[in-house]
Specification:
The chain is of the alpha/beta class. The chain has two domains: 181 residues, NAD(P)-binding Rossmann-like Domain (Rossmann fold, 3-Layer(aba) Sandwich), CATH 3.40.50; 119 residues, N-(1-d-carboxylethyl)-l-norvaline Dehydrogenase, domain 2. Helix 1 packs across helix 2. The chain has an eight-stranded mixed beta sheet, sandwiched between helices. One of its GO terms (molecular function) is NAD+ binding. This is L-carnitine dehydrogenase. Its EC number is 1.1.1.108.
Amino acid sequence: MPPADHLDSRSGTTATAAGARRAGIVGAGSIGVAFALQFARTGWRVRLFDPDAARRAAAPAELNARLSDLARFALIDESAAQIAARVEVVATLEAAAADADLVQECAPERAELKRELFAQIDRAAPEHAILASASSFLAASKFVDETFPGHARCLVAHPGNPPYLVPVVEIVPAPFTAPAATTRAIALYTEAGLLPVHVKKEVAGFVFNRLQGALLREAYCLVRDGVASVDDIDTVMREGLAPRWSVIGPFETVDLNTRGGIASHALKMGPSYERMGAERGQHDPWTPELVAQVETALRTALPLDQWEARVAWRDRQLMRLAKHRKTTPPDKD
């Protein structure tokens, strides 16, 4: 919880010695092209492959269109042409994987397809390369096993969409992934201007989609039960929860909403949240031990004697955001 009095903003560039880095990307759909853009804008050389010739043909125009938009909003530090020149579309998986420091698989969410691709990537990539899947729900152990010679360097790297605007990337090792491979993956994605989050256990959906899924499940239920319309729910999110969550996360939100911090919030509000969960058949009470674990993490980052200052900081960030939204007209394009 930094005391800095400004919104966190990123141009997408990073001051690293990553010019010699090479990424191979397997799959030239929207995520594959987005990854190619993000790696290239931070100095990496990228080889992009898709088995569909039509996808390979379409990828350069898609890349250039996205770069043009980023340039329009001053979110790249070089010309679009300079960045695009670092991306080469290749005709084979082997060409994409050759000499790569990192091979990023971006194929559809089908375990058998990913298993086949990882077997090919494992054979084609140099020994030092990290092999990562952009899987949204499937853990690496669902499509890689210890029969793969390079199984210890395989993991999931699930990005926000698109990664050049939503920089979080979930690094999810399998039980057989070597700790050194996880550490190296985190370092490589950091060099590529992303924000790696180490997910310590393989669970379906990881962290990103489990959080998103919890909210979507409740949103669907509220529509189904006639509590609110689709538009009203989107309004509550867009104008209520989203502004706060663009500055701080859910734990810090409730920590700053209640004098005395999150322990006070859990004491006052925990029973109500428990009852709401039970209505949906989910009984996950916030036990004293769990609350204490979360409180310890928050108080380590923000002692209670700094709580007032942090509340004021939060409010200033929301004021900055409100000013931006007030003074920036909606894009009509």
